[in-house]
Amino acid sequence: DKTQLIKRPKFEENTSELLKGHAMMSSMRIHLSHFDEQNFYSRSRDQVQIHQKMLSCMCKVIYGPSTFQRNKKEIQQVNGFKEVQNFLACMLPRRQGKSISMAQFIVCCLLVVKGVNIVLVVNNNKNAENITSKVREFLKFFKVSPSSLPTDNKKQIVYIHPDGSESKFMSFSGQGKADK
User: Fold this and answer.
1) CA-based nearest residue to 81, from 35, 43, 49, 42
2) pLDDT level of residue 87 (50, 70, 90 thresholds)
3) SS3 125
4) Cα–Cα distance measured from residue 16 to residue 10, given in angstroms and rounded to the nearest whole number
5) Looking at the predicted structure, is the pLDDT value of residue 86 above 90?
6) Which of 125, 135, 140, 165 could be bridged to 114 by S-S, CB 3.0 to 4.6 A?
7) In this structure, are strands 166-173 and 156-160 parallel, antiparallel, or unpaired?
């Protein structure tokens, strides 16, 4: 009999990657909810919606491009995403928590998504430093050991996961001017 058997390892690999993605997505939500539960920069309804949209944009990173393509419908259904887009534009009035929301999400990405490189371009150097400062403050909220942060300055933070992998965050001004 020359019937081809289904290659089991590929199926198991796909299932394993899908489950890892589900676990990371769940971990992201749990980390974000800690801000609300601890009453530390509790999120408004708008901020929760922004984070949900950010999570949908991160699907391909969290699940991996090939796992996402093979399982797109299931991923959308499990996570409650109507659609998944590659980018997100967030427009809210002043003092509505856009920077706080961004810093909260960045911290959760640093802690959960191993190997992630996050670059944030903001309108000026002061805001770049302020966002980095908030990310640093939120890392302390999650009790991240300073020894896990070998690079921690005004515009860059590197987080070392327990397994030795790195996640990085950098913020820059979009003005194109050199730092003063």
Assistant:
1) 49
2) confident
3) helix
4) 10
5) no
6) 165
7) antiparallel
Cβ contact 173:125 at 8 Å: yes
E runs forming strands in 123-173: 151-152, 156-160, 166-173
Which of 115, 16, 114 shows the shortest CA–CA distance to 66? 16
3-state secondary structure 24-83: HHHHHHHHHHHHHHCCCCCCCHHHHHHHHHHHHHCHHHHHCHHHHHHCHHHHHHHHCCCC
pLDDT, tens digit, 9 for 90 and up, residues 149-171: 988 788 899 999 999 999 999 99
Question: How many other C-beta atoms lie within 10 A of the C-beta of residue 50?
Answer: 22
Q: What is the DSSP letter of 96?
A: S
Residue type, 80: G
Cα 52 from Cα 84, distance rounded (Å):
11
**131 vs 10, 18, 27, 126, CA distance in Å?**
42, 32, 23, 9
- What predicted TM-score, i.e. pTM, was given to this entire model? 0.86
